[in-house]
Amino acid sequence: MRSLASRRLALAETDRIPDDPAGADRAVERLLASLGAALDGSGPALALLDASPERERLVSTLRVDLPLERDDVAAVVATSGSTGEPKAALLPATALLHSARATLDRLGGPGHWTLALPPTRVAGLQIVVRSLVAGTTPVPVVGRFDAEAFRVATERLVATPGVRRRYTALVPTQLVRLLDAGPAVVAALAAYDAVLVGGAGCPPALVTRARQAGVRVVTTYGMTETCGGCVYDGWPLGGVTVHVDSADEQGVGRVRIGGPVVFAGYRLRPDLTAAALVDGHHLTNDLGRLRPDGGLEILGRLDDVVISGGVNVPLQAVERAVASYPGVAEAGAVGVEDPEWGSKVVAYVVLRPGARPPALADLRDHVAATHPRAWAPREVVVVDSLPMLPSGKLDRSALARAAGSAGRTSRHAVSP
């Protein structure tokens, strides 16, 4: 990439794929062109923002009138955490390209992609980068994501001349809804050589269900600061290093990631950059441990840990365990202030059609089969749906505010 004396930043034109097929294809072509120019240095770096409530605040803090901190930055992407102030990650061209190439190497080679995630988020952006690397054009899911729109996009991809390998990327909620949509949609899923699933913890039971249906699921872990997923099925991509710092007696500690996929800092926030970048590594806010086979297991976020009875409880690990209980379609967990326990873990569950609410004692036994019993929820609330962020992640703040009142159909508490 040529050296720029003062690299400029421009807002990307596309913040949403249009609702008509022709418009959607034109939007993807424009994004391919502008992102290609950003990567090779012939055009400005792109600021990718979606239509979230934080958009205007981010626009005002990005200061597109000021040069970028580094000339090698190709994209600036808002982080999507469920809590905390919004910030924008500076992603160098070399980092984005390394991530894309390492992904294609891991999956078995270049291919054609279905774009089922917003390109304003790093997972969707990387589909576009991988397509540029492969010399292909992604097929967008037109309009609001649903099972039929995904099936139609898959049919278009399958019918594209010269397609040898087919890929897509989803968040777990999308995968659940596609698996629930019937044989035709499941067949569409099974047509892919790989379906990357990330953006949030993917319950093992969901992975098993998908694979039993013939879907080639690859679970991914990463974040905006690592140019998206950088650990596939527990194993780092080529060149990526993963460490678990200050592990406790259970091997649980803070995850640190190094290698050529790491971001360059946060736009105009040297204070946040200093805290997140340590000796060239990204010090994440995630808790993890190494599996017996050496692979990485993510248990949750530091800010999603509650202390119940003096024990640190990672809520995402609880959610994955609860979601694997028979009859549970989706699960969320929060800590609720409690005079005896300090905080008690409350699980919110969406049931599959016809399923009965889980008996709390049985649910606690189920969680305790794979985790310390202190992690098991002390209360369960059945709800019609869980609040979600535009990225497809659980909106834990909204869930805590709602306190289980919206859509509640039953509630079961447990004694000590």
Automatic annotation (TrEMBL):
Keywords: Ligase. Residues 318-393 form the AMP-binding enzyme C-terminal domain. One of its GO terms (molecular function) is acid-thiol ligase activity. Gene3D superfamilies: 3.30.300.30, N-terminal domain of ligase-like (3.40.50.12780). Pfam families: AMP-binding, AMP-binding_C. Residues 61-266 form the AMP-dependent synthetase/ligase domain. PANTHER family: LONG-CHAIN-FATTY-ACID--COA LIGASE, NONRIBOSOMAL PEPTIDE SYNTHASE PES1 (EUROFUNG)-RELATED. This is O-succinylbenzoic acid--CoA ligase.
